[in-house]
Design brief:
Blueprint lengths: L2 E5 L3 E5 L6 E4 L10 E6 L7 H9 L4 E8 L6 E9 L2 H11 L3 E2 L2 E2 L1 E4 L25
Antiparallel strand pairs: 1-2, 2-3, 4-6, 4-9, 5-6, 7-8
Length: about 140
């Protein structure tokens, strides 16, 4: 694990290459804590952050639960993310809830993956429509 920064008196914060894995070391002497972030897809538009948190809290300590909303309409996009304090709790929740029916919808629960950088954005010869266009 690579330590990415250190603030005097506050400790170090390190981030590994895996999504959702963060280590916090206080004064370089305490144990490393790891978290796991889950992707939850197919949720009902009526599901909010609190409902999502309650749904997963039965499996362990949830640090964060966030439903993603469309910035233009303000309506849920039908997916969200849940971050567990412990990897084992996240694994248990993923196994128990993936493929289950919640509010009349079958949800998918997977380990969250790192976002891909935007493709075809400025100065790149990729228009997003496929093919290997070399010039405009």
């Amino acid at each position: 694990m690579k330590v990415t920064g250190f603030v005097t008196g506050a400790g170090a914060v390190g981030v590994s290459g895996d999504v959702g894995r963060v280590a916090v070391c206080r004064k370089r002497t305490e144990t490393v804590m790891s978290m796991k972030k889950l992707f939850v897809g197919g949720i009902s538009w009526a599901t909010n952050d609190d409902i999502l948190r309650e749904m997963f809290a039965t499996y362990g300590s949830v640090l964060d639960a966030k439903v993603i909303y469309d910035r233009d309409t303000g309506r849920s996009r039908g997916f969200g993310f849940v971050t567990f304090e412990e990897d084992g709790d996240a694994e248990e929740a993923m196994g128990a809830l993936d493929g289950e029916e919640v509010d009349g919808r079958i949800i998918r629960v997977n380990e969250a993956k790192e976002r891909n950088p935007r493709r075809g954005y400025r100065n790149e010869f990729n228009d997003g429509f496929g093919g290997d266009r070399e010039e405009f």
